[in-house]
């Protein structure tokens, strides 16, 4: 799994037994393999139509397939296993563009999404059957192809008595809400807005690439929030839009961050104040999402937070203050390390594919029906 932060590959080695609500997991090994700087820079070139070209996309699709295959082989070796012990690989790939709003060409009106990291390369290098392209079937069924995590949240963490929320803070932040005793149709899930993405972009810019993120939220903690800029950012219509909804770098990526930096330069804001302000943007858009779309209708008993944002003390402190008296917990408390959650999800989705089970959540994605997610590439002959 490589998320919207595009900082590396999260790889999980998982034993899976059963399927659907009877799924049982045993996480054997988890690692994050950072992208080499050259690969990461080339990935970032693909995010913008201004710097991306078809030849770059074509090349990097296969380069990332090779890198993902290397990550599989490293993880298996570190777990003291052999590739022959592995039955199946699930790979999300790297999203380079996502168009959640339908566009029309001739008589064809459709949403679209694009992930790279060639599945055929992974299957060929490892010899292991590989499943990926999990988002595209949901888009074909009228959905936005995201979020995918609500499926895991529902099958593993639904509760008969407690109203639970699961807040991921990756490059983009998203929430899943499970009312007590929920059916799959009761699940509410959507992207709340920027997570770490804008913070990271601002830090990279001001440090000329010597830092790629705000470690422990220390920069934000040392700055002052510019309320004028914050309120200007909060006026983005995405935040008030009713779910289901998804977003990505196309809206909150490098170009968005550059506009913030230009504003900061014109108004004399310091680096630390800009980081504090975009950190407050993450906190406020998450908290406001609960206030607009969850709390008017349900009691919220507990929130489990996952993703890289868990390590940002400024985010976690201010989010806990904003959501009081609701209790916030690190998702790791439920038995899966918070940083491993999305990689584990890929194992679950691959397992559901081979079992023939639909694994999208239409109430979250907006799809017209439940569908089996994924594309299958066989392993080596005889696998």
How would you describe the overall organization of this protein?
- This protein has two domains: 8-145 and 340-377, ATPase, nucleotide binding domain (Nucleotidyltransferase, domain 5), CATH 3.30.420; 152-335, Nucleotidyltransferase, domain 5 (2-Layer Sandwich).
- The chain is globular.
- The protein has helices at residues 37-46, 54-78, 119-126, 136-140, 150-157, 197-206, 218-221, 227-234, 249-252, 254-266, 271-293, 313-323, 341-355, 362-365, and strands at 8-17, 24-34, 89-91, 94-105, 108-116, 130-132, 164-169, 172-178, 188-194, 302-306, 327-330, 375-377.
- With 383 residues, the chain is α/β, with parallel strands linked by helices.
- 48% of the residues are buried.
- A hairpin with a 6-residue loop joins strand 1 (8-17) and strand 2 (24-34).
Give me the count of strands: 12
Computed Rg? 20 Å
Helix content: 25-40%
What class, by secondary structure content? alpha/beta
Gross CATH architecture of the largest domain:
2-Layer Sandwich
CATH topology tier name of the largest domain: Nucleotidyltransferase, domain 5
Low-confidence stretches: none
Overall geometry comes to globular
CATH superfamily (homologous) name of the largest domain: ATPase, nucleotide binding domain
Strand order of the largest sheet: 9-8-7-10-11
The level 1 CATH classification of the largest domain is Alpha Beta
Describe the sheet with the most strands.
5 strands, mixed
Gist of the model:
The protein is an alpha/beta fold and 383 residues long. Helices cover 39% and strands 21% of the residues.
